[in-house]
Every structure is written in C-alpha cells, then in structure tokens.
Backbone:
C-alpha cells in the first residue's frame, strides 16, 4: 500500500516537474474555452456585441449576477494564456538567439527553417529556448 | 503546387460531402492548425497584380451594372483560385456581422496558423462570401461587414498584427458553386495568402 502511494507521488512529481510542458494553451483552445464557459451568456445577454470589439467582458459584467462565475474565470484564463503565448512567440527570437547562433549557424530564417533547426537540436538547445518554444506552441 | 491543389480539392470535397448531412449550424469545417498552415503556404502562386482594391472594384462594378451572374466561375473567383487559400465556415447571427461563440475556436485555429513561423512573414486577405439569397447590394455590404468582424477578432482577441490582414466582402460575386447560386455552400469565408510582408531575414552566422 505504501509502495503504491509512493509510486503515485513519484508519478505526480514527474508529471509536474520532470518533463517540461507548455504553460499556455493554443489560440483555438482559448477560443473554445471562452465559447464553452461564456457562449450561452454571450448569446443571451450580449448578442449585439461582437467578440472583436473587446467589449464582451464588459457587457457580461453588467449581467454579473446572472452569468456563471466560471465564465469570468475561464475568460480571464483564456485571455491571460493568449497574452502569454503572444509574448513567448515574439520573445522567442531573442531568447533562442544564443542557441540559434550555436547550433543553427548558416540557417536562413524564414518559412520556419530556424524553428526546424532548433527543434531538430532540441537535446542541446538551452532550457530557456526550449521552454519559450513550448509556450509559443511550436514544440511538443 | 500539385499538393496544394489536391489539398483544396480534398477540402471542397469534404465540405460538399458534409453539407447534405449537417444542418447549417453545425456545418463548421473543422480544420487542424496543420491543414490551415499547409493550405496557406503555397506562396509560389503569389500574384502581385491582384490587390484587394482591384477585387473590391470588380465586385462593386458587377453589382452596380447588375451584370448577369456567370454560369461558370466569375472572373474574380478564377483569379482568386490561383492563390494559396483555405475555406472555413464561420457562424454569424442572422443578417448580422456578430460572430457566434461556436466559431471562436475556428478563429483561434486560424490565429494558431497565422502566428506560426511558417506564415509569420506573410499577409492575408479575409474574404466574405454569400449565396444569392437577398439582394446583391445587401449581400456585398453584409459580407464586407462580416469580413471586417473576422479581421477585428483576429487582431483584438488573438493579437494577429493588423498590418498582415485585409478584409474584403465579395457578396455573391465569387460563388463557389455557380450552378447552385442559392446553396448555402456558397456562404463561406476564404483566407488567401497575398505575399510577403518584407524580405526574409538573413542567416545567423557563428561569429568566430
């Protein structure tokens, strides 16, 4: 019994700390999350507000007592994840520059050729570069 | 080039196969990020003479002159056919440019593709199309508003750079299936790759 508990703990540890994983969701997942948690409320209370105006959250707030709490939580989580992914994507060039210089010398950037090189060198690229590519959604 | 044509053909086939079974609400073409990237990266087909302004004028002229709809594909559709493209279904509220929540995920998939390094240095036109239900002028206006709404969502929610996107409504002037002008299959959003934003960056070299 003890062994099993220990085994479970080790497994959990490995899952959370061992292998690196993306700390962001894809833009599609973010959109799906907003739709799932807020879709019914948006259609009911904010059917005249387009998502691209950036005013949907404000509209939902005006109906706060009728909108499920999960909608506000998930909307905020989706937005935070989008912001984080955008930051990872635009920051990746700089963060991966040392690795690119070391392992991908002569590779012409553009059409994802640099990314391909960095992913092919994933065993050696620096951890910060690896993590930023994960958060950017470009590595598995 | 061949791969690209086959891909688009496959999509059109999938869409036409799915349409009779699905209700219009669930006819969302489910594209993976990889499929979108593939469809949009056939850059060899770039046509520099084809601009959004030119296409808009062609559509406006056709509506103003009330030109009869061609039995075959229109001149606009023929020229667009040559570009790297994808076709998606976005659900809007009736007679409005409000994007329904069920399509937020599809917009996100498009954003995933546009943010990928393969497409990072390219710009795109988002084209809205209608079927022939309703008046021609109204369809032109509505499709422009819908294309605008998609671009706005991609920019504001999914943070795609506005410099990479243009919106164009073509109304019923570029029917997918001219032999069935009222078929809802003609209601669609297309995204076209219209070339690079700037020259590709230079290679990094090892300074030693």
Residues:
């Amino acid at each position: 019994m003890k062994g099993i508990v220990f085994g479970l703990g080790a497994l959990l540890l490995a899952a959370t700390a061992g292998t690196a994983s993306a700390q962001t969701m894809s833009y599609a997942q973010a959109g799906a999350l907003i739709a799932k948690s807020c879709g019914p409320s948006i259609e009911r209370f904010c059917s005249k507000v387009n998502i691209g105006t950036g005013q949907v959250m404000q509209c939902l707030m005006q109906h706060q007592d009728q909108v499920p709490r999960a909608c506000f939580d998930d909307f905020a989580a989706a937005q935070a994840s989008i912001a984080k992914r955008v930051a990872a994507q635009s920051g990746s060039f700089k963060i991966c520059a040392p690795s690119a210089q070391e392992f991908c010398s002569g590779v012409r950037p553009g059409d994802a050729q640099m990314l391909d090189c960095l992913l092919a060198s994933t065993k050696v690229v620096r951890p910060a570069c690896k993590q930023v590519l994960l958060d950017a959604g470009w590595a598995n | 080039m061949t791969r690209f044509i086959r891909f688009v053909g496959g999509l059109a086939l999938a869409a036409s196969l799915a349409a009779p079974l699905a209700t219009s609400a669930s006819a969302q073409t489910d594209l993976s990020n990889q499929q979108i990237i593939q469809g949009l990266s056939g850059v060899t087909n770039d046509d520099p003479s084809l601009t959004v302004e030119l296409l808009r004028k062609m559509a406006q002229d056709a509506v103003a002159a009330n030109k009869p709809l061609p039995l075959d594909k229109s001149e606009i559709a023929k020229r667009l056919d040559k570009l790297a493209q994808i076709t998606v279904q976005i659900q809007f509220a009736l007679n409005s440019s409000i994007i329904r929540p069920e399509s937020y995920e599809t917009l996100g998939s498009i954003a995933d593709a546009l943010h990928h390094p393969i497409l990072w240095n390219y710009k795109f036109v988002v084209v809205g199309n209608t079927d022939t239900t309703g008046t021609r002028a109204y369809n032109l206006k509505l499709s422009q508003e819908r294309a605008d709404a998609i671009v706005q969502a991609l920019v504001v929610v999914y943070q795609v750079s506005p410099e990479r996107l243009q919106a164009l409504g073509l109304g019923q002037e570029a029917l997918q299936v001219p032999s069935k002008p009222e078929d809802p299959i003609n209601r669609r959003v297309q995204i076209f790759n219209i070339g690079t934003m700037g020259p590709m960056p230079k290679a990094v070299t090892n300074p030693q």
Chain A is about 65% helix and 0% strand.
